[in-house]
Structure formats: C-alpha cells, structure tokens
Model the fold of this input.
Amino acid sequence: MTEEQNYIRPDEAVDLTNCDREPIHLLGGVQGYGCLIATSSDFMVKHVSQNVQDILHFSAEDAIGGRLIDLLPERTVHDLRTKLQILNVETSSSRLFGYDVLGDGRLFDVSVHTLDQTYVFEFEPKIDTENRDEMSLVQPLVARVRRAKDIKAACDQAAMAVQVMSGFDRVMVYQFDEDGTGEVIAEKRKSSMEPFLGLRYPASDIPKQARALYLRSTLRLISDVDGVVSPIVPPTNVQGIPMDLSMSVMRAVSPIHLEYLRNMGVSASMSVSIIKDGKLWGLFACHHETPRHIDFERRTAIELFAQFFSYELVQKIDIASRVQSSEARKLHDNLMIQLSGGTNLINGFEIIADELRGLIANDGVAVYSDGRYACLGDAPDEIEFKKLVRFLNTAPTGQVFATHRLPALYPEASDFSADIAGVLAVPISRTPRDYIVFFRREVAQSVKWAGNPNKPVEVGPNGTRLTPRKSFDTWSELVRNTSAHWTGSEVQTGESLRLSLIEIVLKLTDESNETRQKAADKQELLIAELNHRVRNILNLIQGLVSQSRTGAKDVATYTKVLDGRVQALARAHDQLTRQEWSPSSLRQLIEVEVNAFLTDAKDRISITGDAPKLMPEAFSTMALVIHEMVTNAAKYGALTDHSGKILLNLRIQDDGALQIEWREIGGPPVQAPSRQGFGTTIIEKTIPYELKGTVKTRYLVTGFEADIMIPSTAVSDTQEVVADKTMSVADNKEKRSIKLSGDVLIVEDNMLIALDASDILKDNGADDVHMSGSVADALAVLEANTITFALLDVNLGDQTSLPIAQVLADRSIPFVLATGYGDAESITASYPPAVIAKKPFTAESIVKAISSALSSPDN
Done:
C-alpha cells in the first residue's frame, strides 16, 4: 500500500541505500526529468544521476571530481549557498520554486538538504510554468477540517482535501493501531474503484524501519511505477559507503514495492505522513490508475496541509478526550460522594453499579471487598472470581491491570459461566486483595484483513523476503477469545478510580474505627445507665409491693392496687419512650391515666391553663402521683358518683416553676382520712422528696383540693402546642366484651405471663388454650390443631415470632402481637399487619386488643 513496504528487511538498518547491496535508483520527475548532485562542503561533486546529463549540460565523467562553480552559474551557486546558510537542525531541507538554475530561462524546483558533511541538491524541471499560488489552497481546506464535529468527520474532510490538491483517484486516511496494524478509516475515491474503507493491514506491511523513515521524510511520490530510473554514479563515496538517500524527494523505490502497486492496479502513488505528538499516527495514502506527476511546489503545499491537519487532529483528539474525561469525572465525583457518605461497596452495590457502568464501558462489573463478592451483568460467579483474584494478585502491585485477551493469559477464563474475554481490574486496597473489576464479552467480529495476516512473508523470486500479495481480496479472520480494547483513557480513568477509592477506603476505615470506639463508649454508658434505671425501677417496684400491702383487706384488693400502680408506671414509660426520653406532655399523662380508669363517666375532668412538658426524671414521679389522685377521686371523691368533677389548672410561673391546682367539686362530702396510707404518702411526700417541690392538700367537705408546685428544674422550657388551653378529658373507653371460641394459641417464653394471658382468654370464651415457648412448638401446634385466635410475644429469647405470624396471616387466623418495646412500629414493621398490645398488659388492654383484631376488615 505504501512505497516502503516490503522494501526493507526487518533486520536491516534504516539506511535505504543498503538494501541487498543493490544500486540505489533515482526516479526523476517524469521519465527521467530531474537531477541529483551531492557535494562536500567545498562543493566538490561526489554523485550525479547518469541519464539526466543533458539537462544540466555536463557529462557524468566531467562532473566527477569537478567543482560546482564550474557546472552552474555564479548567481545560482550564490543562491544555493544562501539556502545552505539557513539550514539547521530543525529545518531538514530548504526549497526554491520556479528557479532559473542555468540562466537560460528553464525553470526548476530545487531542494537542498544535508547529510553529515554532505550537501544534496535536487533539481526538478518545472513543467507547469503558469503563475499559481498553491499555498492559497491550504488555509480554506484546513478550515473545513477545523469545522468538522469529530475525528471521523475531520479525516473525511482531510481525505477530500488531499484529493482536491493532488488529483489522485483514491485518497485514504490510514491509521496505525497500538499493535502496529493499520486500518483505512476514511476514503475518497473514483466511483469505479473498489472501496478499501474498513480494511485492516498487518503490522508487517509497514515495518518499523519504514515507519521510522516516514517520521524523517513526510512525503513520498511515485509518479510512474514503470518509469525509467537511473543509477547513482559512483555508487559509493571514497570510503566505499553508499549514499544515504533517505531524505531525497526524487529517489527511486524498491522494485518489490513497484510490483506490489502493479498487483493493485496502481500506476502512481503518494504517501504523506500524519504525525501526532512526535509519533507516526497514520498516513495519507494516494493511488492513481495512470501515471501522475505532482510538481514539487504542489507537493510542498500538500505536505504543509498534512502538518496543519496533524495540529487539528491533535485538537480534535484532545477535545474528545477532555469531553470523555469530563463526563467520567462527573460520574467519578458522584460515585465518590456516595462512597464518602458511607455507602458500602457491597451493600450499596446496585446503587453504585450504574455509576461504574457510566465511568468505564463494560458488559459486567464486580466488587470484591473484605472477602465479600457482588456482581452485575456478565461476570464470573463467586467461586470463579476468587480463582481469578489469585491470578490478578500476580500483576504488579498497586496498578490497574487491563487485557482484551484474558483467556490467552488465564486459560481458565475459557470455562467461565459468563462469556468474558476482557478484564480491567482496579485494586482498591493497599494489598492486592480487594478489587473493582470491569468485564467485556468476547467480540466474535469479522476483521477485514487486506490479505492473510498470518502469512506476511513468502518465498519470491529474490529468495525468502517480503513479497507483494498476489490477491487483495478481503481476508476475513474471526477473532475469538478477544474483547474490545481498553483505551488509554479508560485505563487512566481506572487509575483515578483506584487512587480515589484507596483514599476513601482508608478514610472510611479510620472513621469506622472511630465510630466503633464511640459506639463502644456509648454502649458502656448505656449499660451503666440501664443498670442504674433498672435498679431504681426494681427498688420502686419493691417499695410498691411492700407498701401496697398497707390497708389491703385481702389478696384481690392488694393485687388490684399494685397492678394499677405498675400500670401507671408502664404507661408513663411508654409515653417517655415514644418521645425518645425527651420532655413529655403533662396533659397527655393526665389524659392517659384518666382514660385508663374511667369506664362510664364523660366530661368529668377539665384542664385549663398552660400545656407544660416535664423532664424525663420527673415524669415517672408525676405518673404515680396523678395515678393515686385519680384513684382516690374514683374511690372516695368526686368521681364516685355521676355528678362530681375534677378541675385542673396548670400555670407556669415567671421563674419557670409549674403550679398545679387540683379541685374536686360536686361529689359526695369528703372526710380527712383517719390514717395516712401509702397512696397519701405518694401524693404528699414523693414530690418534695424527689423533685424538691411542694404539695399542700385540703380535705374540704365540698371536695378534695391540692396545690402542687414543681420547680423549674423539672419543667421543660418549651410547652406543648394545643389548639385551646381549655381541654376536656372525656372518657373514650367503651366497655368492651369479646367472645372467643375454639382453640387459641399463646406464644410466650415466660411461663407466668403465659398463664396470666391464658386465664384472660379463657375468661373471654376460649375453649382450650395451647401455650408454646418457641417457634417450633408453636408451628407444631398450628399443624395439629384448628386455631381460631393467637396471642404472640414478639421476642422469644433468641428468636422472634415472625414465622408464626406469617403462617397465621397466610391462614387468615386473627392474632395480636404483645411487646415490651416502646418503639413497637420499627420492631414489628416486618410482620404482617396486626394489632399491638403493650406489656405489661392487663385484662382490659388484652380484651381491647383482641376486640380490635377480631373486628378488623381483614378478619
């Protein structure tokens, strides 16, 4: 396809004058028009082309050993000396266009370059002598390239531009891949010509030596593959070294390459280098079906266009890279924000997988962290991946590993359950252990080879050497066990991801250690606090048990009194728990306590004034006080008949203290107690003792009165928001009755609680009660009996009753959940919908819960 291919053996030097020790040939312009002279610094002639003597009017014999001043006019020698003066390391050659070399009116294009201490002058006759401005074509054609929206469109414009400037039948943009192979990515051709667009050529078609030469000499023209060539006389200098014609614009090419072109039906060709970042990115490859000469001036314009195109190409590639990098950075930053916020790589894998997919194109992605594995898309299973990790650990530590041919490096990949051929592995820990891995499927693609890529060397007439292909029919090679290549920018993105993730992993590790330490400290504090509170509660219960015996006539009375006081504490604790142990409403405490006691009275208690909140440490104390006052009113005071009322006024004083006025009116006459019982002690002594407040009580005939002052330390600065400060507490508790029947199930791991619940259910109609303390026992009961109702404790030691609840729900058997946890909703969220009964429960609360469960629309 290009003039140097098959010309230099891979093991030979770049010096093209030394190919098989054959004479180097000079192709002069058109049919021998042109002349090459080489001279030392004193302008002694060393070499001259043999069959162009007539052009410069001297013979080869006369030229050898002669002086340049004797061959050319003085003005020409002067001008050539001036051109030599401006040559430097950066300027490889200097040129004159349309110059009258001999002073006889005949014009030549002249090129001058140096080789060590030798100056090479090339004279090419000016065939087209009309006034032209070849350089004026360059700028508008470059502008068209600049306006192209992407690299592909820019290459199309460039191919068209070179065709316009050169007039060749076919112009191709040929791009080199990283492995040395090349592909035609743009093409402008005469409609009758066979298309080469998309064809791929093996790396051996243009050896490394030829590619190195394309970097030095960026334009090569073969005007006629059958043109006359001339040997160089003499073939060597006085040291016996052939002349190096690498930079010559008129030198001939290997007959092997000419045969190659003839096989393609090409009579003239031109190649122009496309250089990016100092490397050969590709070529403009031009073919013509008939001989075609492009004069030196136009070739220079084409060469200049190629240079400008290289600059524009760099811009297009950089822009595309920046756009891709910008998009990748956005996705990368979004991913980092999620991970920095605590999103776990494994637990949050599905959330971050889309970000990873947008970051680097893939068919599957997997994360392996702390021995845990998660994957999405086409990826190995966990067993296969763990074996792959051992292979990945053999790669250089702390580097992204990428391959598009995994089975060639790791044969076991051929047996993966998923179709995987490409891997890009990003280490995310200091040691080669944890990874994010991107996978790509095998691309079973037909690659259009221009000839069989596996047979680049054949035996030709000159022995074993590179020989032109006899056929240029497309050779399709099915590429197996190969994925799409990972681009350099994708590998770089993987490296950025690696650095960021390692930083985040280390940060999260430090935060995790700190969090664990704080959690341990908090747990220790909570245990101490819990221990303190449990001891206080146990001491309180012990006091209630002991003191409630005072005045009790019998066991039933004692049990009822004690049960009421314990329930009052439980209700207060539930209210505190709902408020997360923060200040809680006194009005709500009074309402809850009254609703627990009153059965048939309505609008019997009126609360006016402020809506204070009590601190948690004062709440349980006031719960007991309010309970005793409501109990006394129901037993001895205003609530014993249907006419009495209780008036409550709550006022927050200027100093923040709370003043409570309790007034009972309209009830039966009141007498002061003959002795002080435990209930009276709770009312009169608890607040002064525990809260440092005051209590004043009066037993008037018209009704009991009490003035209570709670100091500001026990009262919150904030109040409850109520629509109206006058609140009537009405009885909203209906007298409930239920009628169970058949067999019922109680699941409770505490036998005493189970027995109490059994009595309650039997009292309400259950024929038989089955008690189970574990999930297995309860499921066995359900299988062996026809259960009509169930009461389930949520917590069964090291189990929960969730499996039982699911079976009951599936069979449409009504049930109630009993729990001692304050935050019941979060604990029972995973259960089927059910009525909740708080522990400790009473017969009334259980009956109420069962009634709600049985009346549910679902039942």
